[in-house]
Structure formats: C-alpha cells, structure tokens
Amino acid sequence: MGFWKSLFSPSDTAVAPQRPTAQTVGRVEPESRVVFSTERDLDLYELEELCDAVGWSRRPLRKVRKAIQHSFLVVSMWEQRGAKRRMIGFARATSDHAFNATIWDVVVHPDYQSRGLGKALMRYTLKKLRSEDISNITLFADPHVVDFYRRLGFILDPEGIKGMFWYPD
Question: What is the radius of gyration, based on Cα positions, of the chain?
C-alpha cells in the first residue's frame, strides 16, 4: 500500500465535481509539451488513428462515441507544439460513482512509449479517480502489459475473486 500513499496526499481524496481540465505534464521535444485533458469532445478519427498505431482492431465510431459519452472519466494526452496538438495517449474509466471504477482503453502512441508517458497517463487517471473518492480501481490487461500495471501498484486477483464474463452466442 506504500505506492498508493505516495501517489495520493490526503487532499486528493476530497470529492470534487468533475470538470474538463488540461494540465501540462512535461516535454517530449524541446519545442513541445505534453498536456492532459478531460475534455470529452474528441476527434474520433484522431482517436482511431492512435488505436490503429498500436494495432488495435477498429470499432464502430458510433459505439466509441457512446462509450466516451457514458464514461465516468475520459483522459486524453496531447503533444502540443505551438498551436498544433496531436493526441498521443488516451484512457477512460467507467464507475458506479461511489466505490468502484474500471479503467479501459489505455493507449500510448508507439512513438511516445518507453518515455514514462504511459505511467504519467495512468497516474493522472488514478489521481482523478481518487479525487472523486473512488477506492476500488480495476482494469483488464493483455498479458504483455501486466508487468507495466504491476509496477504502478496493480495486483492480480488480490482476494482470490475470479472474474466472470458473459458473451452473446
């Protein structure tokens, strides 16, 4: 639990209304900066290009739009050079608005991976969820990224609970 205590100060647990925000988190190149946003009005084609870049299968844009609209939290990560912005990361979370949230669709463009930006995206997302007093945060991870999430403090099946899934035939 030391990881969680180091990530969140007591003031981070206060319940605050969720508003779109932008926050600068660092620089990728000397003339650019990396910015997070919780704005939901995203260019879905730009998001689709980001997902294509990591090899994700395409999903109908109408469903992606609906998923974003109904998510509890949407976080996008941008490289900003002057007036130009490029989406380089994305994550979203669903929630019961009280106890639980599940993080979905975490993606960082391959050109920006291995620079600490995925970790920054996840820390920002976790901090936002904790600021809404959400204490149980889960996610689903492909086997090749499990170690990434472990390094952020996630653990596999902490109480021996086995998830179950139902899919239509």
Answer: 16
Strands 84-95 and 22-26: unpaired
Residue 36 pairs in a beta bridge with 23, 77
pLDDT tens sequence across 105-145 = 999 999 999 999 999 999 999 999 999 999 999 999 889 99
- Torsion angle of C-alpha atoms 23, 28, 30, 34, degrees rounded to 10: -10
Q: 78: closest CA among 128, 105, 43, 103?
A: 43
Q: Please say if 124 is a catalytic residue.
A: no
Dihedral (C-alpha) 72, 86, 49, 56: value to the nearest 10 degrees? -60
pLDDT tens-place string over residues 37-92: 999 999 999 999 999 999 999 999 999 999 999 999 999 999 999 999 999 999 99
Q: How far apart are CA 167 and CA 56, in angstroms?
A: 20
Which one is catalytic: 45, 124, 149, 167? 149
Q: In what order do the strands lie in the sheet with 136-139?
A: 22-26, 33-37, 73-81, 84-95, 100-108, 136-139
